[in-house]
Amino acid sequence: MIDTRNGRITIRSFCTPEIIRECAFESQFGIYPRYKSLYTRRESLESLALEPGANIVLAITEDHHIVGFGLLVHPDQDERWFKLGPGIMIELKAIEICRDWRSTGIARPIVEMMLSHPRLEDMIVYLVGYSWTWDLDGSGQSAQEYRRKLVQLFEPFGFEEFQTNDPNICLKPENMLMARIGNRISGELQNQFKWLRFGVEP
User: Fold this and answer.
1) How far apart are CA 75 and CA 83, in angstroms?
2) Residue 189 needs a FRET pair 20 to 30 A away by CA distance; which of 43, 66, 70, 139 works?
3) How far apart are CA 135 and CA 111, in angstroms?
4) Which segments in the chain show pLDDT lower than 50?
């Protein structure tokens, strides 16, 4: 439970489709002139919640409105990051707060809840930042300023920036790859992750 200037919020992790179904998706998760929320329908979160090992974290108001969420999901088998081996890589796929609830202090606890399970010490948690998915108009920031804000959010949780030749990440200089390497990840896996970042399969 978190008290904010907009009211009390409950942060819930490992939300099931049933829990998600009980909530309404805040209407601000929508489409703006130069920004479209990654997830605008509750059904999308319900579908991700069914994936093995997924952790769907919701910020829920007292009247059961979703005003923020975080998604931790294993990559698909056709993605580069799956090639390190099943269950090794897991993606911090999204964290989003609707516009009226930004700067209320709920982003950090959402990240905390996504990373709270001890099994993550056996995994590499990664996130990919694409500037064309960022709400620059809503934030009033440039792409570089927004990027710095994201780095400042994730660094305290053990995330580091890593270089890669992934073509989508390389399209713009402000795009980024960050990862948190679990403390039980072997040196061999870390080395394989280094090569994988540059398209060399383990």
Assistant:
1) 9
2) 70
3) 19
4) none
